[in-house]
Amino acid sequence: MNSTQGPRVAVYRHEHFNAAHRIHNPALSDADNARIYGKCNNLNGHGHNYELTIRVAGPVDPVIGYVIDLGELSTIAKKHV
Fold first, then answer.
1. Are 40 and 22 in contact (CB under 8 A)?
2. Strand, helix or coil at 29?
3. CATH number at residue 39
């Protein structure tokens, strides 16, 4: 522990997000696209669900009482993911 900064604390933020895509080669027939790409060629798209855990560690800010504001951390995650 650094006596000028206090103890280091780790903060975790768990985020969920979804993504969808469709793989389709216009040079191929619909049947060939379906055979080659399977469910990834679905006309309405094919989706995935993701989970992300972010860890931030550091000294607690003596003014705000946090390592980082969790709302700010969530905003940063949504901006970059």
1. yes
2. coil
3. 3.30.479.10
Query: How many other C-beta atoms lie within 10 A of the C-beta of residue 17?
Result: 12
Q: Residue 78 in contact with residue 71, Cβ under 8 Å? A: no
pTM of the predicted model as reported, rounded to 2 decimal places: 0.61
Q: Tell me the pLDDT of the chain (81 aa) as tens digits.
A: 545 667 889 999 888 989 999 999 999 999 999 999 999 999 999 999 999 999 999 999 989 889 998 888 889 888 988
**Cα–Cα distance between 14 and 77 in angstroms, integer?**
10
Q: What is the DSSP letter of 66?
A: S
For residue 36, is it within any domain? yes
